[in-house]
Amino acid sequence: MTATPERLRGRVSVHPxxxxxxxxxxxxxxxSGDEVTVAFIPPPDLQPFLADDEVECIVTRSPVxxxxxxxxxxxxARRRRLLVGAVVKRRGATALAVDRLVGNTDRPLQGDAxxxxxxLARPEGERAVVIRTLSASEAEVVGLxxxxxLALETAPEVETAAVAVVDARHSLDSARRRDLRDLVTxxxxxxxxxxxDDALSAFPPDADGALRxxxxxxxVAEYVxxxxxxxxxxxxxxxxxxxxxxxxxxxxxxxxEDALSLREGxxxxxxxxxxxxxxxxxxxxxDVDEAIIRSTARLTYEAVASFLERGDASAVPxxxxxxxxxxxxxxxxxxxARAERGGRDVDQDEVFVRVDAAGAPVALESRPDDAAxxxxxxxxxxxxxxxxxxxxxxxxxxxxxxxxxxxxERSRALAAAAEALGIVAGFPADAPLxxxxxxxxxxxxxxxxxxALMENAMRRLLGPARYQTEPSPHFGLAAPLYLHFTSPxxxxxxxxxxxxxxxxxxxxxxxxxxDPALQSLAEHLNDRMHRASRAEAExxxxxxxxxxxxxxxxxxxxxxxxxxxxxxxxxxxxxxxLLPGETLALGTSLDVEIDRVDTDLGRIDVRRPRRxxx
Length: 614
Known about the structure:
Elements: E1 4-14, E2 20-26, E3 36-41, H1 43-46, E4 54-61, E5 68-77, E6 83-90, E7 93-98, E8 107-110, E9 118-124, E10 127-133, H2 136-147, H3 156-168, E11 178-179, E12 185-189, E13 198-203, E14 211-218, H4 229-237, E15 241-243, E16 246-248, H5 253-259, E17 267-277, E18 283-294, E19 297-300, H6 301-310, H7 318-341, E20 350-355, E21 361-367, H8 371-393, E22 400-402, H9 408-420, H10 435-445, H11 451-462, E23 466-468, H12 492-505, H13 516-548, E24 555-564, E25 567-572, E26 575-580, E27 589-598, E28 603-607
Parallel strand pairs: 8-10, 11-18, 12-19
Antiparallel strand pairs: 1-2, 1-4, 2-3, 4-5, 6-7, 6-9, 7-8, 9-10, 12-13, 13-14, 14-17, 15-16, 17-18, 20-21, 22-23, 24-25, 24-27, 25-26, 27-28
Helix pairs in contact: 2-13, 7-8, 9-11
């Protein structure tokens, strides 16, 4: 029996051990091309190609073991724009030692650069053309961004366009905007935040007890014309990238941190969403306006939490205190309504790496779940839901944030993980998991030693959300409709939604409900968000590994949080590590020693103790 070949079109991925894979669908030939195939690429066949190359190839399925192998690969399109690597000497000529997660072979180098230098280059055919030499301090971060095909520097013409736009549009057309400058308005952010894109205001309770909250969002669309240089650059990036100690903004800093940022005491153009929230937490009315605000005070999460939780008003101006109390009441109402419908509690502690001025890791720290973070999160989620309903009710196009319910298989896996920790899940065997069932399950583990372990398991098994143009529920938030509206300085999806709203508010009534261009944008943004997320996670892993590199041979307590083919995945002092060759039940607690640390790959290995406890 011989293997049957077929044609496949897909995208290349590269394994650091030198082989690769092509993932794609069958080329239409009278059969369905919907089924995704993953085919192995042997190292010699991979050499001409780079990660993310679009190729067409012949794949053969072995009748013996089902293995799928690709051959006769032909390049269809190259998406990768940049390469980073060290300059090496090969047979008397210089070459670029390409990142082994991007390509499996060195590439002939065109341009001047000394051997041993790390350079930024662009691929041209099988060659790499030098753009510039990288300093030691920037090589690591630039290499990471290039690995994930994330845009690096902002082009000079884009910076020039940012300055020109600011100069040309410094005055606001107040005649057609709702004037909210006399309303007490606050921004609440981290101490280091400079790209402030949301602000909050509130009116005293109505006679029937309803609260009116205004969520004001920077009107980026007013300053970034669609299709021009600023917009095309922001679209290609898709999102700001936040690495420890380093921010790669979606928009030039002249806009994101200055002209558009909702700075204290400065008039700013915004899109304002007014929510009328009744005593039971239901949003009874929504108004959307182009408006002008003037921030009364720039507050920090720490100051607001201290005021709301302990009555410490030392860092909260008197003029803002009544507004903060109303906002807290509104958020509490929304929390009650959300609890009744179920879904996940997203107010989880986050662990992050604190770095020094030079970008070196200092410590692992936790972002606390406090009253200020909860309040802002509730109000922003409510605004996003309200705008989603606003668009659907008027038949307008939109980019919706959709999170599908877990499959039956994933629900069973979550239940099994819980039972391994002595927790009864009791999920229905023959019905989909509901948001309320998930909330009830999560309630019994909150505050227990198993909480962190189950949080890790739920994050993996529930999966990520995505953008699409078809309105659909968000399972994790138990929201019938949801989208991103509140961060247009940082996310292009929000900017796209703003443009639809502004067009409608200015009288457009011919906006097509189904827009193929918007669906294409959704697919692009899903890819950009995924790449940014992977880069952020990888940088965190590398910095955590550097912290643990100083702790080799140290004995620590570990808890099993998962299983990989190579061994048990354990949590150690807030970090993930691998205990090779072990198969252990989830939740098992044991003593281990830090064994090996790979700071390049961000991997920590632990071992069983070699010496007795003194």
